[in-house]
Structure to design on (391 residues):
């Protein structure tokens, strides 16, 4: 397998010199854990105190990791990426809302994005988070099969109705819909609901996609059971594969409550779980569609290798690679240049409301070993290449 991810000219072809400098500065900051902690605290204080910092945030971290404040605001970024064959997944990244009005607003936003995607070849998927449509504690109760009172029953019925509304429209508009995964203690209820949507809307192909986090040791077994059910009942499986984003929270809760952590013991075990699950899906690709969400170069090469071994074309529409906007451009743009299906998650929303997402992104980059140093190394390499070219 040719090593394509070292080509920085392709990776950063859309970035101007000043944008490259900004990226280098940002990742330098993120590489310093104390600075991330201080910056997070200062930013939170400034926003709560309503200090005029949104312009500064917009010009720095926001524009690097987000597409804009609205769908229309994202259009220039999406069009630019699409010239290089990289698609977008518009991700309304407002987090932490807990009331019915906000849940209805998130549903309406998702419906709008599905309509928007239908009109734009650059947007092959829509997406939403389960806790965008209902309370985490309610999912937890439903997943645990705890008894619900009358109000909670009504509340859960509204959650189900929101799923039904967006999945029905996705089916009617033929726009694939990704449903994210969150904390393990709320996931059973979400999984059950998404499976019902697959049973209903994935009769001809995968339109509704669930997500499995493969730092969890039980997820390949979950997929195999779902596959048995899909074969019996005659529906297709759509699955987004990620490693996972809640490791510290998961381990801490398991320790506090005295149960076995759902997280693999080592990173190596997580990596193996991810790659084994990709292989299982490729072995059963006639009943499945996979969205491989990964910033891991080795996992990406392994998927490319499997596709080649199985005689699958690079642009087989059942297989997509996905990365986050603002990260791993060396993977995204080099894959697209070689004809693979690639979609960047493109977060958007009001600057103030998207800050929890951006803070999480900075903290994840700080904690993921090697991620930030790789970004810095690649940016540095490209800056040097351009300097030599100009001399």
């Amino acid at each position: 397998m040719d090593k394509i991810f070292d080509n920085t000219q392709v990776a950063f072809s859309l970035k101007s010199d000043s944008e490259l400098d900004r990226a280098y500065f940002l990742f330098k900051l993120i590489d310093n854990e104390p600075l991330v902690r201080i910056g997070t605290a200062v930013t939170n204080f400034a926003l709560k105190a309503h200090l005029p910092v949104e312009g500064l945030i917009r010009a720095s971290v926001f524009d690097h990791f987000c597409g804009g404040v609205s769908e229309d605001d994202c259009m220039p970024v999406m069009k630019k990426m699409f010239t290089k064959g990289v698609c977008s997944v518009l991700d309304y990244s407002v987090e932490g809302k807990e009331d019915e009005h906000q849940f209805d607003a998130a549903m309406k936003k998702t419906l709008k994005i599905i309509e928007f995607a239908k009109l734009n070849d650059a947007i092959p998927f829509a997406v939403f988070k389960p806790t965008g449509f209902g309370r985490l504690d309610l999912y937890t109760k439903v997943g645990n099969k705890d008894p619900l009172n009358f109000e909670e029953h009504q509340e859960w019925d509204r959650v189900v109705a929101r799923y039904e509304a967006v999945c029905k429209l996705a089916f009617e508009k033929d726009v694939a819909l990704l449903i994210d995964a969150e904390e393990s203690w709320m996931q059973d209820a979400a999984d059950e609901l998404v499976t019902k949507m697959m049973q209903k809307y994935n009769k001809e192909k995968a339109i509704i996609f669930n997500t499995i986090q493969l730092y969890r040791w039980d997820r390949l077994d979950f997929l195999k059971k779902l596959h048995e059910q899909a074969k019996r009942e005659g529906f297709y499986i759509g699955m987004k594969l990620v490693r996972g984003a809640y490791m510290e929270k998961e381990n801490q809760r398991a320790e506090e409550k005295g149960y076995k952590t759902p997280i693999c013991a080592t990173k190596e075990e997580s990596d193996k779980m991810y790659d084994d699950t990709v292989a299982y899906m490729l072995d059963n690709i006639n009943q499945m569609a996979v969205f491989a969400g990964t910033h891991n170069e080795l996992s990406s090469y392994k998927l490319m290798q499997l596709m080649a071994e199985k005689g699958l074309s690079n642009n087989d529409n059942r297989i997509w690679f996905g990365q986050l906007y603002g990260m791993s451009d060396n993977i995204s743009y080099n894959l697209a240049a070689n004809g693979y299906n690639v979609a960047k998650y493109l977060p958007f929303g009001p600057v103030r409301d998207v800050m929890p997402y951006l803070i999480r992104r900075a903290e994840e980059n700080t904690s993921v070993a090697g991620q930030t140093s790789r970004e810095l190394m690649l940016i540095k390499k490209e800056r040097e290449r351009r300097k030599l070219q100009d001399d």
The CA atoms of residues 101 and 107 lie 10 Å apart.
